[in-house]
Amino acid sequence: MVDKKPLTYADAGVSFEEEGKAMSRIKDLVKTTYRPEVVSDLGSFGGLFALGNYEKPVLVSSTDSVGTKLMVAFKANKHDTVGYDIVTHCGNDIVVEGAEPLFFLDYIGIGKMDPAVVEQIMVGLTKGCKEIGCALIGGETAELPGLYKQDEYDLVGTIIGVVEKDALITGHNIKPGDVLVGLSSTGLHTNGYSLARKILFNQCSYDIDTYIPELSTTIGNELLRYHKSYVKSILYLRERYEIKGIAHITGGGLPGNIVRILPDGCWARINTQSWDVPPIFKLLQREGNVEEAEMYRVFNMGIGIVLVLKSENVTDVIDSLNSLDENAFVMGEIESGEKGVKLCPNHS
Q: What is the pTM of this model?
């Protein structure tokens, strides 16, 4: 009988030692995000957060992933930006309903534990949490050989925020005559990457380091631009002006997201000539021979957030946003009719 070698978890591809190294590298980073309401420490079974004084608090939550933007991060071997992206994406999703972000939970599923990669991801996560003022109070980093390739991982985040019930922003009181104000994006943000990668890497045969004069940067730098956070700007506005509705322009583009906040009997007319579409979208449309309607359905086309305001508040709100270093502009109006979104090349 042949003696069999005793097997360990490491033989199966899971290393407690590497996990320990990763945790030791990120512990101090995580603590930099803590708010006074955090009452637990890293490593506890559940993250503890003491809710402050609210009359009628409504908890607002969102869970999302970075999607195939991660595959660009793998190519570039740059992992901090996607950590930031998942926080800002989730933060934008709840602030559009008026909620202040409170705390965040992350999930990293990775093929082979690499403490340096995990640390990069956490640098981005903690930067994002500090940017929007929320605490990173827990998460899970799972080494899953066989499920993910050795140099790949998945990244998912969950955010919890709070808003007083009477301060919720839902779009229910949007009316014909209201005005749409757009806030510029920094690029693709975190949507449309499957099509963008197919066009740029497959059809055009560009590499991550290919410099594109039209973009004034490399493909990698362009595709890994941060997903902009609008949390601070919106929290500032909500204390000073009536915001009737806010749409975060993610998957589904302008048509698929603005319609989510419209009440019955209202449709949104978008003047697509009211802003300059960034060069990356023009490049993708040209090289991929993508139809206009598909571009607006897949990508944000340079718009990260859309506000719906009373017409009399528009000038003051835009002035406030510009003072906050946002690029804000009138991009359309609400009209009476069947609920929907119409993209128009002009005001006619």
A: 0.92
